[in-house]
Amino acid sequence: MSTISAYAAKSKDGKMQPHSIQRREVQANDVLIEILHCGVCHSDLHAIKNDWGNSHYPLVPGHEIIGVVKKVGRDVSKYKEGDTVGVGCLVDSCLSCDACDEHLEQHCLQQPTMTYNSKTQDPGGTTYGGYSKRIVVREEFVLKIPENLDKAGAAPLLCAGITTYSPLHQYGVKKGMTVGIIGLGGLGHMGIKLSAAMGAHTVMITTSEGKAKDAKDLGADEVLISTNQDDMKKWASKFDFLLNTIPVGHDINPYLTLLKYNKTMCLVGAIEPLDSVNGAMLVTGRKAVAGSFIGGLKETQEMLDFCGEHNVVANVESIKMSDINNAFERMEKNDVRYRFVIDMATLD
């Protein structure tokens, strides 16, 4: 075992503070990664405050990890010392169930091991995330980062990027389609960039007129203000696909009017009960509401390669590790455009 510097929440008050953790020694199929950057995800904030009731303290968040390989186990073949790599939301799964056989490790039937706050046989009993100097991950769960991508900007691709890429990819978004991205935040801004890179006519759907310029700067072709009833009527039945990134429960019925017949709205933001859905909105037009959760390792690597080809990264604000509590406070106020990323060189 080795002792590693980290930042952790030690109770549900969510206050982050310096902490030391133990990492396992490198095994035959392990990769030891020195962490350079770690994105700050909204789920980190939920976890440190035990909003979902399953947090284990001390809790070290972070699942948007960019780093450099420092050591590999004797059986590792895909990576070598000096490679730029990433680690996303997963660090293990059974790799043998039906879901894993379909490269959907995030749905592992034996329960996937998440990058932090999951049970593990490693020191401490639960996994510790990327708010730390180093991490040890088995080779299958390490990802290759295209060298042309800005490393800090690439960090959020490991969660926000794959969370939005996966449904856009699965529902076949391409040139000639009209795609709506609902909500402009950490997920929404990646949705715009990826949909535009796929060639779709991309429309930002938001309640805030003040976000119109940002949306177009990010690559949106048009902006629809969802509180404007005339505009909503104008766009009725015009969308081939809707990606709903709103992170809280809300009324989805108005958005269903925007779909063409036999089309889908996919939810990636709200992981809580929604307001009642009017069945008529689904039945009349054969419309569907679906959900999507991050992505498997194969698809995540495809996403990274796609982003490398199209030079897509997140818009980020780099922060020091010691500024994390202030960053969480700003995140609660939606005061970030559009993702905080920790410069891990600032962690002593």
Topology at a glance:
Blueprint: E1 2-9, E2 16-23, E3 30-40, H1 42-48, E4 65-72, E5 84-87, E6 90-92, H2 98-101, E7 113-114, E8 134-138, E9 143-144, H3 151-154, H4 160-170, E10 178-182, H5 186-197, E11 201-206, H6 212-218, E12 222-225, H7 229-234, E13 239-244, H8 253-256, E14 259-267, H9 279-283, E15 288-291, H10 297-310, E16 316-320, H11 324-332, E17 339-343
Helix pairs in contact: 4-5, 4-10
Summarize the structure.
With 348 residues, the chain is α/β, with parallel strands linked by helices. Helices cover 24% and strands 27% of the residues.
Structure description:
There is one protein chain. The protein is α/β, with parallel strands linked by helices and 348 residues long. It has two domains: 190 residues, Quinone Oxidoreductase, Chain A, domain 1 (Alpha-Beta Complex); 132 residues, NAD(P)-binding Rossmann-like Domain (Rossmann fold). The strands form four sheets. Strands 3, 4, 5, 8, 9, 16 and 17 form a seven-stranded mixed β-sheet that branches. Helix 4 packs across helix 5 and helix 4 crosses helix 10. The longest helix has 14 residues. The model has no long low-confidence stretch (mean pLDDT 96).
